[in-house]
Design goal:
Helix content of chain A: 25-40%
Order of helices and strands of chain B: HHEHEHEHEHEEHEHEHHHHEHHEEH
CATH architecture of the domain at 1-42 in chain A: Orthogonal Bundle
CATH class of the domain at 1-42 in chain A: Mainly Alpha
Strand order of the largest sheet of chain B: 1-3-2-4-6-5-10-11-9-7-8
Number of strands of chain A: 2
Number of helices of chain A: 4
CATH topology of the domain at 1-42 in chain A: Histone, subunit A
Distance between the termini of chain A: 38 Å
Shape of chain B: globular
Largest sheet of chain B: 11 strands, mixed
Largest sheet of chain A: 2 strands, antiparallel
Oligomer: heterodimer
Radius of gyration of chain B: 21 Å
Order of helices and strands of chain A: HHHHEE
Strand content of chain B: 5-15%
CATH superfamily of the domain at 1-42 in chain A: Glu-tRNAGln amidotransferase C subunit, N-terminal domain
Helix content of chain B: 25-40%
CATH topology of the largest domain in chain B: Amidase signature (AS) enzymes
Radius of gyration of chain A: 23 Å
Strand content of chain A: under 5%
Number of helices of chain B: 15
Distance between the termini of chain B: 17 Å
Chain lengths: ~110, ~500
């Protein structure tokens, strides 16, 4: 399967990963080769199965009726102390007056 | 140095020696700390080695033992993969992206280790964000295999495997998304276990592929491994995917012996790409079981097993591309700081701080999830995953456990596969299925080829960790492979 360099550059933009030209060239080769191997998935008949959502079959709790059905021990709805602002900002690259400072979102 | 202090003893032996007052956890910690510091010059197994805080933990454990407290692992030194958050101690995930990241909370597993009095002696090296099978993708340099420094230790938990193999620590913690505990265990000649998905909390573990990731133990024998799994297993309200399944006594199976164990061998898997010496050791291990009363079934079939590799290499990168979206150069992690706008800062930060394999997987995942390709790739892979699960569960209705070699080869030379991602991915052929199906699986040493260790993989039923630990314990009672240690460490 041939993936073009333009495809690679487009996907890199979607993923917000800046690539050098040589990285893009290498990834074009790698992705073409790797996606070529994925074709073998079509040899497996999946017409009668659902996609997997949890590896060991636990229930997903989405709504009240799910909670009643499930054996999940949901914790009590009570207030607990969250991380402090200082803790949250501890690893931020740039802060100012208790906020994270970033470059403009709009040009 | 205390005369009777053998750093290379098992955790159980250290615990006995603590109680007989031969030496204390503080003595042991000091000896271990000195040993792993020296070893690190050659092995590069640790990204950081703890000092003051660990010493304090060792002193507290010493006091707890003096006051008569029980606890099989109280005061035992342990190494933790640098993918698990440690409050106040740098956690890098093997990436430049997190080179200065100081977590404010412990991961649940680390919290449990501390509560049980284990002494965390350092954070171990790994492939960046746990993506790799050779530990060559770490931003902190490759780990070397203690059996042969020119070879890889396996990955991604290469540091955790190498330090246990080199008798630096008796126990360590790794994570396993597609074999990242079992494959390095095999290549380094130690034991490694990936628990059932949901058995151990993932809270505070840097996420790679959330439907596949599990935390698990390394040790040198089944007894120590059962003790460590006992400490870390169990439901955690901070991880909604952790299971409410009761945690059994993981040694309850240790008197089971061999008689009547039904062992399945999926012949499809052994057809190609496995080194002859690996197959010979594997078959020899099977003979040991059979001659003592186990029943070998070579007719079990997992017809879709060959799809496991493409399924994994679609699902894991897809989930990774979503999980790694959080590294944006804004909230935490590496940032170039300056650029035209926020988006440019983000792209440049990610471009500079992520290494080649992480970029490759983000690209695979983003492509597979992008408009027009979702059904053909990600959704199809999740459906084939269901088929593989059904086939495994059918097979495990007929047998108690499935045995395979852990890895198709012994440890390979550094740099030999780094430029060929497909060949690198083939290392995971035998280990991926347990992650895809969520089953527990362990690797235990079963032989050598040219002085390099070989691993035997035992795959169990869902939540059947105690069973496979029992089989491994039985095997270790009749063989000495797990006792072999590399020279000169």
């Amino acid at each position: 399967m041939e993936i073009s360099k333009e495809d690679v550059i487009h996907v890199a933009e979607l993923a917000r990963v800046q690539l050098t030209d040589s990285e893009a060239t290498k990834l074009q080769q790698d992705l073409s080769q790797i996606f070529g191997h994925f074709k073998s998935l079509n040899e497996v008949d999946t017409s009668t199965v659902n996609p997997t959502i949890h590896a060991s079959g636990a229930q997903v709790v989405l709504a009240r009726h799910d909670i009643e059905k499930s054996h999940q021990n949901l914790r009590q709805d009570e207030i607990r102390s969250p991380l402090s602002p200082n803790q949250v900002l501890l690893n931020a690259p740039r802060t100012e007056d208790g906020f994270i400072r970033i470059k403009g979102v709009l040009d | 140095m205390i005369a009777d202090l053998d750093i290379g003893s098992s955790a159980a032996q250290h615990a006995t020696n603590f109680r007989s007052n031969t030496y204390t956890p503080t003595d042991l910690f000091k000896a271990v700390s000195a040993k792993i510091t020296v070893q690190n010059k050659n092995l590069n197994a640790f990204i950081s080695i703890a000092d003051e805080e660990a010493l304090k933990a060792a002193e507290v454990a010493t006091q707890r033992i003096k006051s008569g407290e029980n606890g099989s692992l109280l005061g035992i030194p342990i190494a933790v993969k640098d993918l698990l958050n440690t409050a106040g101690q740098r956690t890098t995930a093997g990436s430049k992206m997190l080179e200065n990241f100081i977590p404010v909370q412990d991961s649940t597993v680390v919290q449990k280790l501390k509560d049980s009095g284990l002494v965390i002696v350092g954070k171990t090296n790994l492939d960046e964000f746990a993506m790799g099978s050779s530990n060559e993708y770490s931003a902190y340099g490759p780990v070397h295999n203690p059996w042969d420094l020119s070879r890889v230790p396996g990955g991604s938990s290469g540091g955790s495997a190498a330090t246990v193999a080199a008798r630096g620590v008796p126990l360590s913690i790794g994570t396993d998304t597609g074999g990242s505990i079992r494959q390095p265990a095999a290549l380094c000649g130690v034991m490694g276990l990936k628990p059932t998905y949901g058995r151990v909390s993932r809270f505070g573990v840097v996420a790679f592929a959330s439907s596949l990731d599990q935390v698990g133990p390394f040790s040198r024998d089944a007894n120590d491994m059962a003790d460590l799994l006992q400490v870390i297993a169990g439901h955690d309200e901070k991880d909604s995917t952790s299971s409410l399944e009761p945690v059994p006594d993981f040694k309850s199976t240790f008197n089971r012996g061999f008689d009547g164990i039904k062992i399945g061998i999926p012949s499809e898997l052994l057809q190609e790409g496995v080194e002859d010496e690996v197959l010979e050791s594997f078959e020899h291990a099977i003979d040991e079981f059979e001659s003592r009363g186990a029943i070998i079934n070579r007719d079990i079939s997992i017809p879709s097993i060959k799809a496991a590799l493409p399924v994994y290499y679609l699902i894991a990168p897809s989930e990774a591309s979503a999980n790694l979206a959080r590294y944006d150069g804004v909230k935490y992690g590496f940032s170039v700081l300056d650029g035209k706008n926020a988006e440019e800062v983000m792209s440049a930060s990610r471009g500079m701080a992520f290494g080649p394999e992480v970029k490759r997987r983000i690209m695979i995942g983003t492509y597979a999830l992008s408009a027009g390709y979702y059904d053909a790739y990600y959704l199809k892979a999740q459906k084939v995953r269901t088929v593989i699960q059904q086939e495994f569960h059918t097979a495990l209705n007929e047998v108690d456990t499935i045995f395979t070699p852990t890895a198709p080869t012994t440890a390979f030379e550094l740099d030999s596969k780094i430029n060929n991602p497909i060949e690198m991915y083939l290392n995971d052929l035998f280990t991926l299925p347990a992650n895809i199906v969520g089953l527990p699986a362990l690797s235990t040493p079963c032989g050598f080829s040219s002085d390099l260790p070989i691993g035997l993989q035992m795959i169990g039923k869902t939540f059947g960790e105690a069973d496979i630990l029992g089989y491994a314990h039985a095997y270790q009672s009749i063989t000495d492979w797990h006792k072999s240690e590399p020279a000169d460490w």
